[in-house]
Amino acid sequence: MKDTVPVFHFRGALDYKKIGLGNKLMMKKMKIPEADFVSKDQIKPLLASLGSTKPADKPASTTTKIYDTPRLTIETRHVHLPNGKDRNYLFVQPVPAVCILPTDETHVYLIKQYRAVIKEYILEVPAGGMDNGSETPLECAKRELAEEARLSAKEFVPKGYVYSTPGFCTEKLWLFEARGLAPCEDCARDEDEIIDVVKVPKAEVFAMIDRGEIVDAKTIALLTRSLANLNSD
């Protein structure tokens, strides 16, 4: 047990003023002097032992898989947080995706797409998930631009990335601005993609966002990254 259970020795004190008369006389007869070995330094080995706990010694995270496909995984996980608390979280994990803003000198090209989940047509930038393990963000951007907007581009300018809903979802969206546009019919749209391409003046973009005509979060993020320096007045 000495090898597995840590033992700490905290010495105390003997104060004649705080013991009963009988004990006091006995201690004096046995010539046991007053003593005080109380010291904060004694607790240092205990604190050092507690402080040496490694992350691996903390409760292990446990995972329960709810749904699993090549393009989407849903799990619950028991997570040990940096503040020492433990919580259960839902993890929704789609494949990484890309968003592309086709643009020329004066206009951007959005798509008006029917979204069955919200039962609405909304204005969006072309976007889509990467083929897991087989596509880079740039390759995916070229494919999605051709599929959804029927366009190709001479130049794809990276605009960083955003997380769509990090409270429960790991989705990472890579952003691109596409320049030097040309018509392209190389790729067919998916059967459920009901899309029209809409040409929007750059000077109108932020007014449309302000009026609630553009409400898609990823689209607003990419428009802001690309047109932040535009004087829309």
Task: Summarize the structure in words.
It is built from five helices and twelve strands. Strand 7 and strand 8 form a beta hairpin. The strands form four sheets. Strands 9-6-11-10 form a four-stranded mixed β-sheet, with helices on both faces. The chain has a three-stranded antiparallel β-sheet with strand order 3-4-5, with no helix packed on it. The protein is α+β, with helices and mostly antiparallel strands and 233 residues long. Helix content is 20%, strand content 36%. The chain is elongated, with a radius of gyration of 33 Å.
Instruction: Assign the structural class, choosing from mainly alpha, mainly beta, alpha/beta, alpha+beta, or little secondary structure.
Output: alpha+beta
Q: How many angstroms separate the termini?
A: 78 Å
Are there runs of 5+ residues with pLDDT below 50, and where? none
String of helices and strands: EHEHEEEEEEEHEEEHH
Mean pLDDT: 87
Looking at the structure, what is the overall shape?
elongated
Strand order of the largest sheet: 9-6-11-10
Separate helix tally: 5
Counted beta strands: 12
Main beta sheet: strand number and arrangement?
4 strands, mixed
Percent range for helical residues?
A: 10-25%
What is the CA-atom radius of gyration, in angstroms?
A: 33 Å
Looking at the chains present, what oligomeric state does this protein adopt? single chain
Percent of sequence in beta strands = 35-45%
